[in-house]
Amino acid sequence: MSLSITDPNLQKHVDKKTYLREYLESVVKLGNKIPDFYDEIDRSFKKINKPSLIYPINDDLYIHINSFPAVLDGYNEYKIIDPPPAEPDLTHLVDVQFGKAAADMKPPSERNERFMMVEEYLIKLLQVSDEPVDYSKFEIGKSKTIPVTSDLFDSLKYHFLRNRVGLGLLEPFLSDPHMEDISIIGAGNMFVEHKIFGPLKSPVWLTNSEIDNLMIGMAEQMGKTISHARPIVDATLPEGSRINIVYGTDISRKGTNATIRRFASTPISITEILNFKTLNSLQAAYIWMMFEVGMSCFICGETASGKTTTTMALSSFVKPSAKIVSAEDTPEITMPHPNWISEVTRNTGSEASSVGMFDLLKAALRQRPNYIMIGEIRGAEGNVAFQAMQTGHPVISTFHAANVKSLMQRLVAEPINVPKANAENLNIALFQGAVQGPDGGMLRRVLSINEIVGYDSVNDNVMFVPLFTWDPATDTTSFRGRGSSALFAMKVLQMRGMSKADEPLLYDELEGRARILDHWAANGILNYYDVYAEISKVFKLGWKNYMLEEQIA
Predict the structure, then answer these.
(1) What average pLDDT does the segment 317-326 reach?
(2) Predicted confidence (pLDDT) per residue in 177-201, tens digit
(3) Are 243 and 219 in contact (CB under 8 A)?
(4) Which H or E run includes 382?
(5) How many Cα atoms within 13 Å fall on the side-chain side of residue 234?
């Protein structure tokens, strides 16, 4: 079939990849146009109403985002275009040879190094040849190498690395830097959450037995046991993503399900979040000032509201010289600070050898941290966190709550049991949500930033000041204005050794730091570690001197 390709860039890829040409031919056969081709995509592509586009992930892998299936069920499609599997006889030969060689191999601990080691072995084993081979009659003993055509070499290498070193059919999904979540809901299609195109359906269809085999194999790779006796597993995949597995039809009606939360190797920076309009520069500057003086803060919201992402971005405002101890169930937090201790719970099934969040927080109090980071507060460890705040150890944590009222209700109830009178030890409660944008897509917004002022024993409630609030009608954030921050007046002035008459200076500084953040965002200082380097520079020079040096008006 003759393809009429007008894009020279796409033609270049088609000339190299036979399987890409065959895929495009199948698209045209269905009466569809050839998709647009882009070497890279970014968040500006969110504006595309009915996308049909292809972008490359690496030398072997392409993704087609296709709006045509949405006519049927409302979902756009996430289609993986990759090399077809090599013929079974060849795959078997390579498996046998690799099995013999693996006994003498010492696999490195780093995942990327394991990929490189196996790839180097394949390059030595497979000899590219122009002549096709009947592998059903091939005798490996007569030669140290296996002849393959160039197409077969690429196919075999891709699938062998994917299945032997990677995570099988999940590997292509996890290779996409734009991937946010992967959902296996039981027998049927897989679903994904794309950072740019939102919820998408994959044509990959899995049976219950295929899902069970996949999850059992993955659990073994991660050193976990999954069975009907222990059907729920939380773990971290080798490449850093977090996975939750619920095993068996007895508790998951459609069969074993799994959700994978994908984390970028480099966290999203505060300037990127400003560009996303999740919060504005004045809000970020306020948190910056508060974290510098050791205020405690809970970043609250519902599931998938972006709490962890915002937490990591804001945590770069903690003093560069601070000693930080983080405690998590599964490792998600990344801190740029050099003096950072990262600790993770251990669940062995035995009370004697398991280490819970409660244990980690008690240990953290003995480590003399300047800040304690908690992945998420769910249980009795919350009480320890408030004891830490009371003894001068500020805490940053995520928390599932939609507003201050629900936050306090959860804190004072089982199993956390924080006395209401101790609630004022928490200084700031930030609430973030996933909201619908004007185009119907999902946006993440900081809905409010609240200062916890104290406990009113007469009315038996916790007093707070909603300093920043988001208006959904205009998608803007309002600030109560100068003189409205109770923490500035009651805490920051005292901690800085300033008098009440100096309070206006804090608001001048707030506005100055906001201008610094706007300057970074506008001038492309977006990388997480580059932003941290600039924050460290501000800490060293002082915000006024930094503005003078960088000529920020």
Answers:
(1) 96
(2) 999 999 999 999 999 999 899 899 9
(3) no
(4) helix 381-390
(5) 10
Domains annotated for the chain, with CATH where assigned, are 88-168 (no CATH), 270-550 (3.40.50.300)
pLDDT tens by residue, 107-141:
887 888 888 999 998 999 988 888 888 888 887 76
Residues 6+ apart with CB under 8 A from 91: 85, 156, 159, 160
Cα Rg, the chain, nearest whole Å: 27
- Both tokens assigned to 175: 């290779």
Pick the most confident of 235-244, 357-366, 394-403. 394-403
In whole angstroms, what is the distance from residue 62 CA to residue 37 CA? Answer: 10
- Going by C-beta distance under 8 Å and a sequence separation of 6 or more, which residues neighbour residue 334? 267, 312, 528
The tokens describing 315, both together, are: 């945590």
User: What is the phi-psi region of residue 390: left when phi exceeds 0, alpha when psi lies from -120 to 50, beta otherwise?
Assistant: alpha
Q: Which amino acid type is present at position 279? A: L
Average pLDDT, integer, range 237-246:
87
Q: Which residues of 54-74 are buried (b: 16+ CB within 10 A; e: fewer)?
A: bbbbeebbbbbbbbeeeeeee
Structural tokens at position 171: 């590997």
Report which of 178, 8, 187 is spatially closest to residue 80, judged by C-alpha positions: 178
* DSSP-assigned letter for residue 301: E
